[in-house]
Design a protein that fits this description.
About 10% of the residues have low confidence. Helix 2 packs across helix 5. A five-stranded mixed beta sheet has the order 2-1-5-3-4, covered by helices on one side. The protein has three domains: about 70 residues, Beta-grasp domain (Ubiquitin-like (UB roll), Roll); about 80 residues, [2Fe-2S]-binding domain (DNA polymerase, domain 1), CATH 1.10.150.120; about 80 residues, no CATH class. It is α+β, with helices and mostly antiparallel strands. The N and C termini lie far apart (about 55 Å).
């Protein structure tokens, strides 16, 4: 029979006193120092405090600690060492966050979903994560991250499979996605390996892009003489350069030299490029490079 005075948190048995009455979130954060679950609304509506209790997602701000006595609680800290859980890796790889405050709750709800449904569709993902809000509005990326996590989980859990490193799994997942995205008629061909995992000279720019015109800006030489900055010519530079590719069919791709971390500024930059070059907004895309 379960002990009436302990909670198992991330595999460790913890004593719990029923007095004074306090929330499970308070126990986790204030007494155990597990700060992944966050206090958001305090009403069990935003999902920032989501943890798993016996494998089911629970809003820990809205549950008394005594309700978890004798049960098993899993926090984001207990998923995997070093953030190596497939769902955590997928969120990072898809940039499915911005401020990150509510990300742990979203991750825990996604883990619970994949524990029930190995390959959920968009509707199932939306339904399972409907109790978790993202004020930064990264919902499309979150949905893509859950799909990616499902693929990672299927691969690493396959009979006879040998899990590799996170980088190897990311590259393999990228290749799987590329096979689908690069099919005949696809509008989104992808490189053989994600460009952030290889050196610039090894990136297969023109194996992905069609024939067209390239205009490049080199921050090392740009800028008027005598101006302050980092460029050899006196201009300000990013260190990464930027360039445009205009394809024969009118599509324009802008390479920013920057990394997008969930802000979805690529969408805004695509609109700027389209307006500046007077091309349809649907024909403009922006990517970090």
């Amino acid at each position: 029979m379960a002990d009436a005075s302990v909670i198992t948190v991330d595999g460790v048995v913890r004593p719990v006193s029923p007095e004074p009455p306090r929330s499970l979130l308070s126990i986790l954060c204030d007494e155990l120092g597990l700060t992944g679950a966050k206090l958001g609304c305090g009403e069990g509506e935003c999902g920032a405090c989501t943890v798993l209790v016996d494998g089911q997602p629970v809003k820990s701000c809205h549950v008394y600690a005594t309700e978890a006595i004798g049960r098993s609680v899993t926090t984001i800290e207990g998923l995997a060492p070093g953030g190596a859980h497939p769902v955590q890796r997928a969120f990072v790889e898809e940039g499915a966050f911005q401020c990150g405050y509510r990300t742990p709750g979203l991750v825990m709800s996604a883990v619970a979903l994949l524990g029930r449904v190995a390959d959920p569709d968009d509707a199932e993902i939306t339904d399972a994560l409907s109790g978790n809000l993202c004020r930064c509005g990264t919902y499309p990326r979150i949905r893509r991250a859950v799909h990616r996590a499902a693929r990672l989980t299927a691969r690493e859990g396959a009979p006879g499979g040998t899990p590799g490193t996170a980088a190897e799994a990311q590259a393999a997942d990228w290749t799987d996605g590329r096979a689908a995205d690069s099919a005949p008629g696809s509008e989104h061909p992808r490189p053989q390996r994600p460009w952030d995992l290889v050196e610039p000279e090894e990136r297969d720019w023109f194996a992905v892009l069609p024939d067209g015109l390239v205009v490049a800006w080199d921050p090392r030489t740009a800028g008027p003489a005598g101006a302050g900055g980092h460029g050899a010519g006196g201009g300000w530079g990013t260190g990464g350069g930027a360039w445009l590719h205009a394809a024969a069919d009118g599509r324009v791709t802008a390479f920013t030299g920057k990394v997008n971390l969930g802000q979805d500024n690529r969408t805004a930059l695509s609109l700027l490029v389209a307006d500046e070059l007077r091309v349809p907004r649907s024909a403009s895309a922006t990517t970090g490079a």
